[in-house]
Design goal:
Elements (H helix, E strand, L loop, with lengths): L19 H12 L5 E3 L14 H6 L3 E8 L5 E7 L14 H17 L8 E7 L2 H7 L5 H20 L7 E7 L1 H6 L10 H13 L6 E6 L16 H13 L6 E5 L7 H4 L12 E7 L4 H15 L4 E4 L11 H16 L4
Parallel strand pairs: 1-4, 4-5, 5-6, 6-7, 7-8, 8-9
Antiparallel strand pairs: 2-3
Helix pairs in contact: 1-3, 1-11, 3-5, 7-8, 10-11
């Protein structure tokens, strides 16, 4: 048996159960100490990642709806533009992330006090990088004017969360998806170069106090259970992680990256040997797939270990659009995979 620490498990964010109490209880009971931070599952209106932010766009005084376009995953999305009469002091209304997080934390706090959540388990809040809603909902001509306003609103949301949740109980994850769609050349964008995209992520990290755990979910999308592009390998993600590790002035506690179901090969994982993150950064590989279960995950993990001896595990993305009855079996599968990986020599 390996003497290494137990294989940790990350939940990326969305867990489609009935409410946050069911999420916290089910996850804590199934994953135990392997899960270092539990999200509230993004239940209710938040099940489809950032799609619920359209209601915020509708209320924003500086925006007006422009047109309907077919988005990634064949989803019809509205585009918004800057109103001609927009004033310099225009600001977004509350985005809703803070109010949802604070309400969920009250439930988390109660369950922890009752012994249903371990004392050292943190409450995780997953936030999209502001670039994602801007790319998804704002027409290109208005992007430069609106992006800083939305970023300021997101920072206010985080500050409101920090004012309520004790830092020693909080973990913040930045979900970076549209950045990779742009860097991979899938979507045209007002910002396409590597450095300014990574610089935005560096700034987001600076908003989070070092006493709060913080990580990044590097995402290739999951609309209709497919990626916007199949990553050729982990090279681009390694480049982003290495740049962030160099530029971010606070600890990065984790990175999460996807592993496609058909990539049980050395070529996909080989760039991980060039990873230059700090020793305290956990890399979570999204190598768990319900379709091929334990056998497939262990096959992918075997190739990964050649290039990255120690890592945690996760699914490729959140559980968001998965039927609720599949959640418990998928959590149990992750626990089973982790137990098997504990037995593998480092």
């Amino acid at each position: 048996m390996s003497d290494a620490a137990p294989t940790p498990i990350l939940l990326v964010g969305s867990v489609p159960l009935s409410d946050e109490e069911q999420v916290f209880s089910t996850v804590s009971r199934t994953l135990g100490s392997r899960i270092k931070a539990i999200p509230d599952g993004e239940t209710g209106d938040r099940t489809n990642w950032i799609n619920w932010q359209k209601s915020v766009m509708d209320k924003a005084p500086m925006l007006e709806r422009k047109k309907h376009v077919e988005g990634y995953g064949a989803v019809q999305v509205d585009l918004y533009s800057r109103r001609a009469d927009c004033t310099d002091d225009a600001a977004f209304p509350p985005l809703g992330y803070a109010s949802a997080a604070i309400a969920s934390y009250r439930t988390f706090e109660r369950l922890a006090a009752e012994g249903g959540i371990a004392a050292d388990t943190r409450f995780m809040v997953a936030l999209p990088t502001p670039f994602a809603p801007m790319m998804s909902f704002i027409e290109p001509e208005s992007f430069d004017a609106i992006e800083p306003l939305y970023a300021a609103a997101m920072r206010r949301e985080l500050q409101d969360i920090l004012a309520v949740v004790p830092p020693e109980r909080l973990a913040v994850q930045w979900d970076a998806a549209l950045e990779f769609a742009v860097l991979e050349g899938v979507f045209p964008a007002p910002v396409t170069d590597f450095d300014p995209l990574v610089s935005r992520m560096v700034e987001l990290a600076s908003w989070v106090p070092s006493s709060v755990k913080m990580g990044f979910h590097l995402c290739y999308g999951d609309a209709n259970h497919s990626h916007f592009k199949e990553p050729e390998d982990t090279a681009l993600m390694v480049s982003v992680m290495n740049h962030l590790a160099t530029l971010v002035e606070r600890p990065i506690d984790w990175f999460h990256l996807p592993v496609p179901i058909d990539r049980a090969d050395d070529a996909y994982f080989a760039p991980l040997s060039k990873l230059a993150t700090e020793a305290g950064t956990t890399i979570y590989l999204g190598l768990v797939h319900a379709r091929d279960g334990l056998e497939g995950a262990l096959r992918r993990a075997g190739h990964a270990k050649t290039h990255l001896p120690a890592f945690g595990i996760a699914t490729e993305c959140g559980f968001g659009r998965r039927p609720s009855e599949t959640v418990a079996p998928l959590l149990e599968l992750q626990a089973e995979i982790a137990r098997h990986l504990d037995m593998v020599p480092a």
